[in-house]
């Protein structure tokens, strides 16, 4: 897939806009990515990322397309993706999220624009001849994390719980490993051509399948190790997953990925309290 920069990005701030497919574009702000769709009736924007990033993007959209922003969609509740929403707060702009994401932003007094349009399972946003299908897949990362399918371009956008071309983030703080696996399986049943994540690389279904295989292999390896009576240090030493050694941050983050899955299995599944687990682990 060919990606090309439109115009001259502001290198000092490391911001860039890339054309993805059809009328869908990716916005890059450092290590973060969001997506927007330009239509004859206006523009749909996903995560603002930060006040500075949103300000730059809003100015660029005005210069390049000269069309109003109609929707701002929050991927989930985490501030490093949804802060800066107030930059887009103007008459006629709808802010959209899953109900759980909105509830968390309200309860924690988040300093960003609070969504005024929420949904439970699925929602479709129609704008001009295009649409965005929003879907909640259950627990995976944060609260109210959703997928966004932009049609007819066939571009799927998911933030944080699917990352292509890089290892999952450090010790998986805030991640539900079983939920990540289940949500990723659901995504693979969806109809799309290009995947854009909130970090790292774009890709296709084959890349998501490899990511899913990594998650399942990681989970199974840690689970089986605990059930065999091995402690965390032993698991970090023995589990190698060499098929994924080519991924950036493999050496640095594999031990942390193992730690994250271990913590989930101990804290949420209480594996060390089971009578079938060797007693030296309890």
TrEMBL record:
Metallo-beta-lactamase domain mapped to chain residues: 31-199
SMART domains associated with the record: Lactamase_B (SM00849)
A Pfam family this chain is assigned to: Lactamase_B
InterPro entries: Metallo-B-lactamas, NDM-1-like, RibonucZ/Hydroxyglut_hydro
Domain of life: Bacteria
PANTHER family on file: ACYL-COENZYME A THIOESTERASE MBLAC2 (PTHR42951:SF4), METALLO-BETA-LACTAMASE DOMAIN-CONTAINING (PTHR42951)
The protein, known as: MBL fold metallo-hydrolase
UniProt source species: Halotia branconii CENA392
């Amino acid at each position: 897939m060919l990606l090309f920069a439109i115009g001259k990005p502001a290198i000092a701030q490391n911001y860039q806009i890339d054309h993805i497919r059809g009328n869908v574009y990716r916005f890059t702000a450092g290590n973060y990515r969001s997506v927007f769709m330009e239509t004859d009736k206006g523009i749909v924007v996903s995560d603002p990322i930060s006040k500075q990033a949103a300000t730059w993007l809003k100015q660029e959209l005005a210069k390049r397309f000269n069309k109003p922003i109609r929707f701002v969609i929050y991927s989930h509740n985490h501030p490093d993706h949804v802060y800066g929403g107030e930059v887009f707060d103007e008459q006629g702009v709808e802010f959209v999220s899953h109900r759980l994401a909105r509830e968390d932003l309200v309860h924690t007094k988040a300093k960003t624009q609070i969504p005024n349009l929420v949904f439970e399972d699925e929602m479709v946003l129609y704008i001009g001849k295009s649409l965005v299908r929003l879907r909640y897949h259950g627990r995976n990362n944060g609260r109210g994390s959703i997928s966004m399918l932009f049609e007819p371009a066939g571009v799927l956008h998911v933030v944080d719980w699917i990352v292509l071309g890089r290892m999952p983030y450090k010790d998986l703080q805030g991640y539900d490993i079983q939920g990540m696996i289940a949500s990723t399986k659901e995504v693979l049943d969806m109809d799309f051509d290009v995947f854009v994540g909130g970090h790292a690389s774009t890709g296709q279904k084959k890349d998501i399948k490899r990511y899913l295989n990594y998650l399942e292999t990681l989970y199974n390896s840690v689970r089986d190790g605990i059930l065999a009576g091995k402690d965390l240090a032993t698991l970090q030493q023995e589990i190698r997953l060499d098929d994924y050694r080519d991924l950036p941050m493999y050496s640095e983050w594999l031990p942390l990925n193992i730690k994250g899955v271990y913590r989930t299995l101990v804290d949420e599944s209480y594996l060390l309290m089971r009578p079938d687990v060797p007693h030296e682990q309890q």
